[in-house]
Design brief:
12 helices; 292 residues; single chain; alpha/beta; 7 strands
């Protein structure tokens, strides 16, 4: 009698890449297409300030120039300025339409809001991640910044994104090169990081580690059906942060228990006020970027 060998199905799962969307990318003509398609192959996060902007679309549709760099929001408006303003208006209306038509959880985005009830976190989220995020953001807010190039809205939006990426360790920031970028250009968010004392280094195209990671990410982007946007002019950039993880790990173990702020009902901003970090977690931090 022949033994019947049952079918054997083997499923191999790989951890998903985690990235945080730069607010200027989210508010560009590429933002929503990226969100709608990349969420199938990556874990996508957005910053708190982006939702504040989207909650006030009436104001920003009336004054879209308030989302430009200060040096662009001047009396001497150029063709480039007008094009960027039109792009912001279009993006705001599209985000507004999507939010009215779709449950936000359907976008498969994650974020940390002002309160836990206003946040959307993965099921496997680390209970201490919220405290790390608030600590990184608060520490960065206390650092010097470049207020000549950025307004407060953009500075806050950049701070949220940078803190989110730092709090998650392996996450990277997905940003872009500006229109008309030259060989010496860098992503706009790098200017903000430089103002906070965090140097940004461009990684050469021939770097073997960047080449390996770039190949993996390009495969995911192609699988998500986004290649056509590159042909249309999208110039994506991957930005990695290197921060003082030892200090933050030591600090959060002293301040937060496993039943700590993750389950609290109080405002997360109040939580940050109660537990302000005693040290600058951004001391000796570095950022590295390469074009995808």
């Amino acid at each position: 009698m022949n033994a019947v060998i049952p079918d054997l199905n083997v499923t191999i799962s790989h951890p998903r890449w985690t990235c945080v969307l730069d607010p200027t990318l989210a508010l560009s003509r590429y933002g929503l297409p990226l969100v709608k398609q990349l969420n199938e192959v990556m874990e996508l996060w957005v910053g708190r300030e982006l939702w504040h902007i989207l909650d006030n679309t009436y104001f920003y549709l009336e004054q879209p120039e308030s989302l430009l760099l200060n040096r662009f929001a001047s009396a001497s408006e150029t063709t480039e300025d007008r094009a960027r303003v039109q792009e912001i208006v279009w993006a705001l209306r599209e985000w507004e339409r999507i939010r009215m038509e779709t449950d936000l959880s359907g976008l498969k985005l994650f974020w940390i809001g002002d309160r836990l009830g206003e946040s959307l976190l993965p099921a496997e989220a680390d209970a201490k991640m919220i405290w790390r995020y608030e600590a990184f953001a608060e520490s960065l807010a206390g650092s010097p910044d470049d207020r000549t190039a950025f307004n407060e809205v953009l500075l806050t939006a950049f701070r949220d994104v940078v803190a989110l990426a730092a709090a998650q360790g392996s996450a990277f920031i997905l940003t872009q090169l500006p229109e008309g970028a030259t060989a010496s250009s860098s992503p706009v968010i790098c200017n903000a990081l430089g103002g906070w004392g965090v140097p940004c280094k461009a990684i050469p195209a021939q770097d073997p580690w960047a080449a390996l990671e770039r190949d993996c990410l390009r495969r995911l982007v192609a699988r998500a059906g986004l290649v056509k946007w590159f042909w249309a002019g999208l110039r994506l950039v991957v930005l990695h942060l290197l921060v003082n993880n030892t200090a933050i790990a030591s600090s959060d173990s002293k301040n937060v228990s496993s039943e700590g702020p993750f389950f609290a009902e109080e405002s997360l901003l109040d939580l940050a006020e109660h537990q302000k970090p005693a040290i600058n977690f951004w001391q000796s931090a570095q950022a590295f970027w390469y074009s995808l």
